[in-house]
Amino acid sequence: MNAMNNRQPTVSLGFLLGCLFCVAVLRCEAQTNLIPNHSFEVPDSCPGTHTFLTPGEGPLYWFSGGGTPDYFQSCVPPPSEASVPLHDYAFQYPQDGENYIGLVTYEVNSGGLREYAMVQLTTPLVQGQTYSVSFYANAAWNGTDSMYPQHYIASSHVGALFTMQPRTWTGGDPWTLATGSAHVFHPWVISDTVNWTLVSGSFIADSAYQFLMVGNHFDNSITDTVHFGTYIWSPKAYMLVDNVCVSAGTEGCPLANGVGLHADSEVLLFPNPVMSELVVSGLREDAVAVILDPTGRQIWSGRITQAGWRLDVDAWARGCYVLNMLMGEGRRSFKFVLIE
């Protein structure tokens, strides 16, 4: 991908020069943040379009890891598809600075497509080191384009995945689908269309990761949703993202209350879909659990043990359920489906 290839190799040099000569623009006061252009302030000129697909489009250093993420700037005069605060998909002021990005986090048709924004870290992660991760997300709503009322769904599981290599995407590539894992993610639906929601967590790096990939990395069977309307065509969830942070330790990035290490990242529910018995494996500690039906009604609550746990669901009504688990200071959410 030309956009990434032209920008990515100079990340470290560009970040250093920016801190020396353009402190006000690049906001280098956050010296521990490993994300260059973390709040999408550079470039400060207004591009002709708002996608990430060619050189000069999108925020500096960032590129598409899937689909066509959008770049919104306050310098673009309204009415415009890319202006701030009012644009095609929402009316929203930035959480930090003057700009932000947006991407699709859930889609019903086309096999559950996803959009992802990627960036190369200023330095690779160190294996065995603890890192904190955060960004702010907002459920897009009430934009100007009458062709896009289908963005009427809010979704869960938006998060951050670290990779060793860039996963570049161009217009001729197959549409990117969810991989089923993320290092940090928000297990609850982000449905606030007014305020920015903090997505945060910490983890221990198991590799010297060099790239960060932001979006929803879980497929539709895992993702929870809330509908804002009743439109019937091409329903999607569209999320705005701002102020991305990655830092060594747990002090450099803002962390939400109750967010701890994702040491239980290997928790699995199977089979899923399930017919008669649900099995939960991979827990490293006991968890207090609550299961909700599609209406939010509590169906079951109790404690799940780490030694492989089974629940008889044969008599339950067929449909979707959500398993919420509290483990120490951390919370996780899983969706499972009962079928005949």
Q: DSSP helix count?
A: 3
How would you describe the shape?
globular
Quickly give the CATH architecture of the largest domain.
Answer: Sandwich
Helix content: under 10%
Residues in β-strands, percent? 25-35%
Termini separation: 45 Å
CATH topology of the largest domain: Jelly Rolls
Number of strands: 19
Residue stretches low in confidence (pLDDT < 50, at least 5 long) are 1-31, 258-265
Order of strands across the main sheet: 1-4-10-7-8
Order of helices and strands: HHHEEEEEEEEEEEEEEEEEEE
User: In this structure, how is the largest beta sheet organized?
Assistant: 5 strands, antiparallel
Summarize the structure in short:
The chain is mainly beta and 340 residues long.
